[in-house]
Amino acid sequence: MKRLSERNPIVVAIVGLLLLAAIALLAFNAASLPIIGGGTGYTAYFAEDAGLAAGNEVRVAGVTVGHVTGIALDGNQVAVSFKVKGTWVGDDTTAAIKIKTLLGDKFLALDPQGAGPQDPGQPIPLSRTTSPYDVTQAFTGFGQQVSQIDTVQLGRSLQTLAAAFAGTPPYVRSALRGLASLSRTVASRDAQLAGLLRGAKNVTGALAGQNANFARLLSDGNLLLAELRQRQAAIHALLTGTQALAVQLSGLVNDNQATLGPALQALDRVTTVLQHNQANLKKALALAGPYYRLLGNATGNGRWFDAYLCGIIPKSYLPPGTGPSTGCKPPKP
Question: Cα(331)–Cα(108) distance, rounded to whole angstroms?
């Protein structure tokens, strides 16, 4: 067998590229593989998708067991395909689209029921599925429908109706005049209402975009509350001990007030005297330094004083060549 270095480099490069492409293809389609894939695929029919999207979670009793793989329109109903792994799905299983967060994220909830397993090729019928009521989508649809109303024509219609009922009793005419005024007010604020609804739509879109941050904030808040709950006994003991310490300090001050008062007054007098004699104290400390230095030199050789006395013996009594020649200085060794 030829070594790799002896083979044609072009063929080796082509084979290597093909192997890399096959590995990348397997990696991107790992969820569809039979052994390590995403599990068994099922289909469920819903009256509406309610904002469910491919990639959303599939949960059983709150535990994530799979994900939604696709959503398609099948006649007048929506076919939702999903995969679950490691979960038994019965032939009487119910499916429901539920709201995951307050910002409108959805997930598919399964309730496994039945005596036998669900056939993956047989969809879950519409009678065993439910869709939620989405307030955000309803509000958005309401805004779109209101923006399409011809408010000017509506106001004219109400005014015509009020004129037609002019001969009716006073309370009917008052009600119709109120409706006409309301229509004129709505017509005059048409642009503002449209802007308000567009702004509400933008706000809901921005909040939906920050869903992950809100979820992280709520999770961190839960962790903080859990930690405070665990530390509740320690915090209670700390506050109780602080309160007891304050009581003891108050009692100590009250018990020793007769002694502390004169002591503080005497200390005040001492500090006053020291302040008045600050110059003398400064001078005394300046002179004490050289004094104690010389005293240390005199007593530093042992348990005696080193001293030199000059001029006690007259010079005429000293042997020639001894003693200082001039002045009274100690002789050098």
Answer: 111
Q: Which stretch of DSSP H or E encloses residue 80?
A: strand 77-84
Q: Using the predicted structure, report yes or no on whether residue 4 has a pLDDT greater than 70.
A: no
Please enumerate in sequence order all residues whose Cβ is within 8 A of that of 278, keeping only pairs 6 or more positions apart, or say none: none
Contact in structure between 193 and 182 (CB atoms under 8 Å): no
Q: How far is Cα 248 from Cα 254, in angstroms, rounded to an integer? A: 10
* 3-class DSSP assignment, residue 103: coil
Give the pair of three-digit tokens for residue 148.
């399409």
Which two three-digit tokens encode residue 13? 């490069």
SS3 state at 61: coil
Rg, C-alpha atoms of the chain = 49
Nearest to 144 by CA among 188, 186, 201, 102: 201
Name the residue with higher pLDDT: 217 or 158: 217
pLDDT per position as a tens digit, 267-324: 888 888 888 888 888 888 888 888 778 777 777 777 777 776 666 677 677 777 666 6
Distances (CA, A) of 259 to 187, 249, 263, 266: 85, 15, 6, 11
Q: List, in order, residues 6 or more apart from 195 with CB less than 8 Å away.
A: none
Residue 78, beta-bridge partner list: 46, 73
Half-sphere exposure in the Cβ direction for 188 (13 Å, CA): 6
3-state helix vs strand vs coil in the chain, percent to 5: 55, 15, 30
CB atoms within 10 A of CB 59: 18
Q: If you search the block for the tokens 């999207």, which residue do you land on?
A: 53
- DSSP-assigned states of every residue in 192-261: HHHHHHHHHHHHHHHHHHTHHHHHHHHHHHHHHHHHHHHTHHHHHHHHHHHHHHHHHHHHHHHHTHHHHH
Task: Give backbone dihedrals phi and psi of 66, rounded to 5 degrees, phi first.
Answer: 180, -160
Give the pLDDT band of residue 160 (cuts 50, 70, 90).
confident
pLDDT in tens, 102-144: 666 788 888 888 888 888 888 888 888 888 765 555 556 566 6
